[in-house]
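Students often ask why inverse folding is considered easier than folding. One informal answer: many sequences map to the same fold, so there is more than one right answer. In these notes we will look at a single instance of the problem. The structure comes first.
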C-alpha cells in the first residue's frame, strides 16, 4: 500500500497531459483487418478538401507530441521520412500516418512523430475459427460472421455519403468504443472445453494495447501537456479504457475537437 501511495503521489505531482485518442480506419486500406472495407480514396480532390478541414481542427488542439501506429524499432526510418516529407522530397501516400501524422508534424513544426505500436508474433484468429468449427459452436460462429458483415456493410454505406470528419466522429463515439471493447469478450467461450483459444486471443489483444499504452507513457516528458494518438479505432477503444483512470493523462473527447 505504501508503494502504491508513493507511485500515485509522484504521478500526481504533475498536471496530467491531455491526450486526444483519434481512432481511424485505415486510409490506405491494406486489407489486414478481418472486416474488409472499401477504399476511401483519400487522395481524391473531395477527400483532400475534407482532410484540410480535419487538419485545421486538429491543429487547433496544438499537440506537442504525436504518436502513430508504427513500431518503436522503426523510429529512425520514421524520422527520416518526416524530414523528407517536410522538405517536399517524399510523395505523400494515402495512409493516415502521412495524411494526418506527417502533415500535422510539418504544419505544427514538430520534429517527428513517434512510433509506439507493438506487433504480435501470434494472433490466432484462424485457429479460433477452426476450433470453434471443431467444437460445433455454429451459433457463435454465425453471430461473429453477422457482426463482421454488419460492420463492413455499415462502413461501406457510410463511405458513400459521409465526410471524413463524420466517419471519424462515428469511429470515436461512445457507442463504437463500447462495440470495439465488448466484441472481443464474445470470444472468451470460443473453442472446446479443454482449450482456451478464445481467452488467449482476447488476452493477446489486450496485451498488445497495454504495451502500446506503456510505450506512450514512457515517451511522455513534463513538456508534453497535449498529445495526439493516431491509431486504428480498435486500438483507441482499448487505450481509452486504459487511460481514462490513469493519473498521468486526461482523455479529451474527440467530439470536442472535431465537432
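Output (designed amino acids):
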Amino acid at each position: 500500500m505504501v508503494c502504491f501511495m508513493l507511485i500515485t503521489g509522484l504521478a500526481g505531482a504533475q498536471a496530467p497531459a491531455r491526450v486526444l485518442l483519434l481512432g481511424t480506419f485505415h486510409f490506405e486500406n491494406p486489407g489486414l483487418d478481418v472486416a474488409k472495407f472499401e477504399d476511401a480514396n483519400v487522395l481524391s480532390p473531395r477527400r483532400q478538401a475534407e482532410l484540410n478541414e480535419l487538419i485545421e481542427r486538429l491543429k487547433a488542439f496544438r499537440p506537442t507530441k504525436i504518436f502513430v501506429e508504427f513500431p518503436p524499432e522503426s523510429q529512425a526510418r520514421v524520422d527520416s521520412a518526416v524530414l523528407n516529407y517536410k522538405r517536399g522530397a517524399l510523395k505523400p501516400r494515402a495512409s493516415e500516418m502521412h495524411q494526418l501524422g506527417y502533415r500535422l508534424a510539418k504544419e505544427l513544426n514538430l520534429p517527428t512523430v513517434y512510433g509506439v505500436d507493438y506487433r504480435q508474433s501470434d494472433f490466432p484468429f484462424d485457429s479460433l475459427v477452426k476450433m470453434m468449427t471443431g467444437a460445433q459452436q455454429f451459433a457463435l460462429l454465425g453471430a461473429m460472421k453477422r457482426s463482421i458483415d454488419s460492420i463492413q456493410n455499415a462502413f461501406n454505406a457510410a463511405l458513400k455519403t459521409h465526410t471524413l470528419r463524420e466517419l471519424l466522429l462515428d469511429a470515436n463515439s461512445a457507442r463504437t468504443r463500447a462495440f470495439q471493447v465488448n466484441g472481443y469478450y464474445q470470444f472468451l467461450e470460443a473453442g472446446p472445453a479443454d482449450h482456451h483459444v478464445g481467452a488467449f486471443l482476447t488476452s493477446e489483444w489486450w496485451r498488445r494495447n497495454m504495451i502500446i499504452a506503456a510505450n506512450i507513457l514512457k515517451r511522455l516528458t513534463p513538456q508534453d501537456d497535449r498529445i495526439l494518438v493516431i491509431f486504428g479505432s480498435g486500438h483507441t477503444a482499448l487505450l481509452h479504457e486504459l487511460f481514462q483512470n490513469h493519473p498521468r493523462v486526461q482523455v479529451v473527447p474527440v467530439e470536442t475537437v472535431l465537432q
